[in-house]
Amino acid sequence: MNNNIVLRLKEFFNENILLVILALVKLFIHLAVNITGGYGIFRDEFYYLACAENLDWGYVDQPPFSILMLLLNRLFFGDSLFAIRLLPSIIGAVVVFLAGLITKELGGKKFAQVLAAISVITAPQILGTNANFSMNSFDIVFWTLAIYLIVRIMKEGNPKQWLWLGIVIGLGLLNKISVLWLGAGIFTGLILTPGRKLFLTRRVWTAAGVALLIFLPYIIWEAVYGFPTLEFMKNAISNKYAEMSPLKMLFEQILHMNPITFPIWISGLFYFLTSKATKQFRILPIIYFTVLLILIINRNSKSEYLGPVYPMLFALGSFTLENFITRYNWKWLKPVYLAILVAGGIVLAPFAIAVLPVETFISYSRTLGITPSTTEKKEVAKLPQYYADMFGWEEMTAEIAKAYNTLTPEEKSKCAIFFFNYGEAGAIDYYGRIYGLPKAICSHNNYWLWGPRGATGEIVIRLGRSKTDILKTYKEANQVGFFFNEYCMPYENNLQVFICRDRRIPMKDEWVKMKNYD
Fold first, then answer.
1. Is the domain of 287 the same as that of 365?
2. How crowded is residue 144: how many other Cβ atoms within 10 Å of its Cβ?
3. Residues 352, 26: contact at Cβ < 8 Å?
4. How many domains does one find in the chain?
5. Both 76 and 40 in a single domain?
6. Whole-number Å distance between alpha carbons of 302 and 243
7. Do residues 517 and 451 lie in contact, with contact meaning Cβ atoms separated by under 8 Å?
8. pTM of the entire structure?
9. How high is the pLDDT of residue 285?
10. Which of 89, 346, 459, 462 has its CA 20 to 30 A from that of 335?
């Protein structure tokens, strides 16, 4: 039996050898960048590592799946930059393979499968997502795997595949709750197509029940802690994210997914929506339009939230383009389009992964007329926020350590290092081991839930710009250092290091008022 399984797997990979090769190309790209260290660890990665040291069934800003994966990854491979980013690199390769498989299930031949796979590889947003550790890499693979199962269900109607779909959606929800949008798309797609008859069977309800059962521990965690994620989402939408018009959302999708892929996915989207030949798969474009409508209604959404659905769109479009080429016998278009697609991906790759030295990237960006940007309501400097948030963390920790080492042993035992955002706190927790620093305390997201860790406020090290403001909270504040990095975000730059003493209101008494979920 084991030999039969091995033979079947060997046959499967031999049949899909081109997809295997392209998946390995995607993996190699990320490993090559990661082994050099890129621009450094991203701010959110510090936070995720801190969360992994405090494993729970949920967190203020995310469910627990990706954090559990990071903990396991850390146990086996450590927490170097290369180790942290190993999983998203592998996941990215899996998505490339799945995109090709979906195309194959739709009826696409070799060219369509390769086109879909290369479209995934050259899409800057997907490339950037797989370039660092976050829940978003897992999110893309869960969406893509769910779509693969839906295609199989529409073709074969195997009841067991509904069970697998429930498991995938459940795990996807346990990773990121935006998988609810996928669920809404599947529901809408079934209602608006002949698939509505499936609601009269146990299959759909079994899948939904399995998904809910897997997701239930997180729901219970939310209830126990007063649904902090709802508060986080409300604050982020109103205070953090910039408003997004439908036109801007469309433009950003075209840019972020490589403009060369636009003719592919837009043609596939409407072909599968209107063609009688593909009506059994009409649920797929309906999923996209359902999610798009949800994001448009919420005007503060990010266009990148649509990212997980694009491997599906690339599959639809690749099938459509292959049929078009076959119909008109334009064989010359195949190598030409692939070459242009790869060229476009190469031009845009530096905006997604750190393949250029930083100053070279800045010059390159200026040459193309692309200015630094952010999806949040924040000022940027030389670099887009995505890259700026990889700079300055170890230097900041070193400045904090200098201040800490001016204290006596008795003062060190009472000292707390306090921040207002999880990036700074996470960096201290990561690099502070080198400098012998205590764990940071912070009022931001899950750090607030972890509490002040026994800190009284008697002695606190803080970053700030105004001694006057700090003296409103402490009776004494002495500047002992200064942090500057020319590439980091402006709001975290040019900061003074203060040793503060005698907090006017003890830390533990005011902790409840300091909560910052955003």
1. no
2. 27
3. no
4. 3
5. yes
6. 8
7. no
8. 0.94
9. 97
10. 89
